[in-house]
Amino acid sequence: MSERLLLAEHFITNHGQPAARTLEALPADVAGGVIDAISDPLSVTALKAMLPYHAARCLLAIGPESAARYLAVLPVGEAAAILRHTDPEARKKLVDLLPRQKAVRVALILGYPQSLVGAWIDPITLTLPITATVGDAKTRVANEGYEYDTIFVVDDGNRLRGAVSLVLLLLRSRDDVSLSTLIRRTPDAVRASTTLERAADAKGWSQNDLLPVTDRDDRFIGVIRFAELRRALQKPAIAQRAAERGDNLMGITEACYLGLADLLATTLADNRDGASPS
């Protein structure tokens, strides 16, 4: 192993959060190359410490087989959080490459019905850590070619702490200033398990054309645009009939995801063990 990789491994081992912030600030192909070159345990350590959006960019850059190898080792919730920040085609390919039990559990967590907000979000949404400086933020925005005026700021648990205007960020002259000095309050987030009809009544739409979306643990998973919400509401009634069940059913379903996955896995194992040899 080269001296540079040994130094990278030492940095990740002893300074996990600063190392994650450094990787996030690099172009995705460069950061992905580092993650794929170091030892697998440390690769997983780095991915767990990174914000899900940036971890997803790195995994997409290194190819599906290598990406699936790391996702298979990550805890189910963290693997799902990263996969939410990939497009549907890439997500399906990666899930299909996971071990069967892991794939079932991840797919269940990701599987919001079309009648709910979670099925219509844009998950590929740049997030910035609250610990970043203005200079760090400018670098990430430049690397990503970000398309929205609002950039969401999160803590290490990927929970929303506020938002920053892209214009204000770019006009700020001192790069060493903490990003937290530019943060403004975000409009109230919409839960991914909210029905489309209820989301359409959110107060935040009066002054915003997009709203942040969080999961049931209040973690940021993307945004929903008002135009996309209107398009979703115009879909045929098959989704609307499911919407009439309300959020409570979805909350119960989400709470049962992991238990259901375990039940499915156990049933599959029992069927294999009890099958007669051919």
Shape: globular
Gyration radius over CA: 20 Å
The biggest sheet, with number of strands, parallel, antiparallel or mixed sense and barrel status, is: 3 strands, mixed
- Helix-strand pattern: HHHHHHHHHEHEEHEHEEHHH
Question: Would you kindly provide a brief summary of this structure?
Answer:
The chain is mainly α. 56% of the residues lie in helices and 10% in strands. The chain contains 15 helices and six strands.
3D architecture notes:
The protein is globular and about 55 Å long. Mean pLDDT is 83; it is low at 237-269. The longest helix has 28 residues, at 247-274. Helix content is 56%, strand content 10%. The chain has helices at 3-14, 16-25, 28-37, 40-49, 52-62, 64-73, 76-83, 88-97, 100-110, 134-144, 166-171, 196-200, 226-233, 237-243, 247-274; strands at residues 127-129, 150-154, 160-165, 190-191, 210-214, 220-225. A hairpin with a 5-residue loop joins strand 2 and strand 3 (160-165).
Question: Which tags fit this structure?
Answer:
278 residues; mainly alpha; three-stranded mixed sheet; 15 helices
